[in-house]
Design brief:
about 180 residues; YdbS-like_PH; membrane; 5 helices; transmembrane; about 40% helix; alpha+beta; three-stranded antiparallel β-sheet; transmembrane helix; Membrane protein
Length: about 180
């Protein structure tokens, strides 16, 4: 499920569209495997039909709650970097989105625990001007590259919106004190 392009402005384009790292799916896949194993075991041991239905029903509930739902959350969570902003979007039935304009990004930092370094993911913290302050993005795949890309986007945005000496608009003339007295 790609990020919907209709929320972008006319000159805006997606640079990175990320989901949380696949490690978030380890527990759901484990639950799925255990649920299937439980049903197969119940069938192989030729248990009473009612007991097989109970095991299959519990397995179905476990798969729906602990496998399918986390997969939906994982698929509908987007970390998007564009040439104008950082978009953080979550939600399956309802949707929450936070937009951080690149011009408001004050600082960004990444951290990785040992196991995250082995798996190639980490946490990216984006500090922005405004009342919300920091946004912590967990389980970012290839977090080092994402942080570098964010740095490049922020610098390009600052360069595009800053003036050099020749481009700076002229300051309006200040009225002199003689003109003010009249």
């Amino acid at each position: 499920m790609a990020f919907p392009e209709d929320v972008l402005t006319a000159d805006e384009h997606v640079v990175l569209d990320l989901h949380p790292h696949w490690k978030a799916m380890i527990r759901p896949v484990t639950v799925l495997v255990l649920a299937v194993a439980a049903v197969i075991t119940a069938l192989l041991f030729d248990l009473d039909a009612i007991l097989v239905y109970i095991v299959a029903g519990l397995a179905l509930v476990a798969v729906a709650w602990l496998t399918f739902w986390p997969w939906l959350v994982w698929r509908t969570t987007h970390y998007v970097l564009t040439n104008e902003r950082v978009l953080l979007q979550t939600g399956v039935f309802s949707r929450d989105r936070r937009d951080i304009p690149l011009s408001r990004v004050n600082d960004h930092a990444m951290s990785q625990k040992f196991i995250e370094r082995l798996l190639g993911c980490g946490t990216l913290t984006i500090e922005s001007a405004g009342e919300r302050g920091q946004s912590v993005l967990n389980d970012i795949p290839h977090v080092e590259k994402v942080q570098t890309t964010l740095y490049e986007l922020v610098e390009a945005d600052r360069d595009a919106h800053s003036y050099n000496d020749n481009e700076r608009p002229a300051a309006p003339a200040q009225p002199s004190k003689v003109e003010e007295k009249k």
